[in-house]
Amino acid sequence: MSLSVFDIFKVGIGPSSSHTVGPMRAAREFVLDLERAGELARVHEVIVRLYGSLALTGKGHGTDRAILLGLEGGEPDKIDPDAVEGTVARIRASERLNLLGKHEVAFDEPMQLLFQKSEVLPGHSNGMRFAGLGAGCGVIREAEYYSIGGGFIVRAGEPLSSSAAATKA
Q: What is the pLDDT of residues 79-93, one digit of tens each?
């Protein structure tokens, strides 16, 4: 795998690419997978669990905000930094997420964005699990991601060497 300077230096909200850029990409990738599978419209709620370092420092480092923005389709290098606070405030006040800007669902943040502070996933200390649930609370799709540094993400079970290329797309 070769990296360029553009892979190493990322544009995105901070303060830490591991805690913001990576989680935003993972959240967006999760809802893109739902859309690609034709499952987005069936989703009635999304549950996100943060583990390890993301759970312990996530609120202070903006992981919670990055996840919300990513679920709405935000991309770290394209999001307007001046719009972040307004978007997060809207989501929190309305208790609604607009997945990929296309499909609105209820979102009770304290019950659906969970900080698993005493658990670490086996793949990395920056772990995340996403679940899209249907009308009867049945699981439509689940995915586990790791933010491995520098804004790169890897899906559980995916070889590390292919993850960097996947996150550049």
A: 898 999 999 999 999
pLDDT of residue 58: 77
Distance between CA atoms of residues 123 and 140, nearest Å: 23
> Which pTM does this prediction carry?
0.86
Strands 126-133 and 45-51: antiparallel
Q: What residues does 131 pair with on adjacent strands?
A: 47, 142
Between strands 103-106 and 113-116, the pairing is: unpaired
Cis peptide before 159 (omega within 30 of 0): no
Query: 52, 125 in Cβ contact below 8 A?
Result: yes
Instruction: Indicate the DSSP class of residue 83.
Output: G
CA 89 to chain CA centroid, Å, is: 18
> What does the block give as tokens for 40?
């987005």
- CA–CA distance, 100 with 29 (Å, rounded to integer): 10
55-78 burial string, b = 16+ CB within 10 Å, else e? bbbbeebbbbbbbbbbbbbbebee
